Input
Amino acid sequence: MPDVIKTAPATEDPKTAAAEPVAVKAEKARSLWGDAWVDLRTNWYFVISSVLILILLVMTVFPGLFTGASPTFSDLAHHFLGKPELGKVGSTEWLGYDGQGRSVYARVIYGARASVTVGIAVTALVTVFGGLIGMLGGYFGGWIDALLSGFTNVFLGLPFLLGAMVVLQAFTDRTVWSVTLALAFLGWTQIARVMRGAVITIKQADYVQAARALGAGTSRILFKHILPNAMAPVIVVATISLGVYISAEATLSYLGLGLADPAISWGSDIAAGSSQIRVAPHILLYPSIMLSITVLAFIMLGEAVRNALDPKSR
Output
């Protein structure tokens, strides 16, 4: 059998090779959430607020990482209205002492737990309940929508803080959870209205009509097709409202209707410091600064998320 002689392929003409079309790898289309994440990573509002919120969450769960002092330990003999020693960063006396000889720095750190817990818990409750009310009313329409919208309007007409004060009178012990229930009782209406509007728009979409034509059940259409696409405006409102709920808890505690001892709250510390603002302004100053930073961080996060999810801002 004769040997087969293999010849090397001829060298291609550079002009011919250059003229041949080059296959370009198709770029995978991003979803709304993918586009939003790309925008958020370059948004300084999102970066700064995320860092602040991460620190607050760590402070809430692990306050011992920031201070070893007890927020309830009193030493009137040595620390009555002690002035701040700003050179001793992170120490017990860094931010001074209050009228009961307690470390202001320790109370600022431990006060984050109540405020952040109330804010997150209220936001979770109102998002679930208000989102469900709005989704059912917007999808079914008719008498169901009229009934649920009327129910929502009744609660919407009640003053938020005044109603929370009245509800709190029903609790003998004003704890974190009683304040959470009082705020959630009246705070779900805005989420319900936002969800209802989003569902009314989305249920007319072609993919929802196609799913209905293919025989998909109501629960599948609601939770598989409508809910994921209606959550964007709800998340924006919930994120901004979280800061509002934190400030509402501080307001109730300031008025003496929110958290009571032994719970530690920035609002109650601000109330205690307001009576001694002339002789010891630091008691009022530092809890107020922490409260402002916390509320501002969540509002900045909500603004960043809204701009990222709003197609008109692109």
In short: Residues 1-6, 14-19 have pLDDT under 50 and may be disordered.
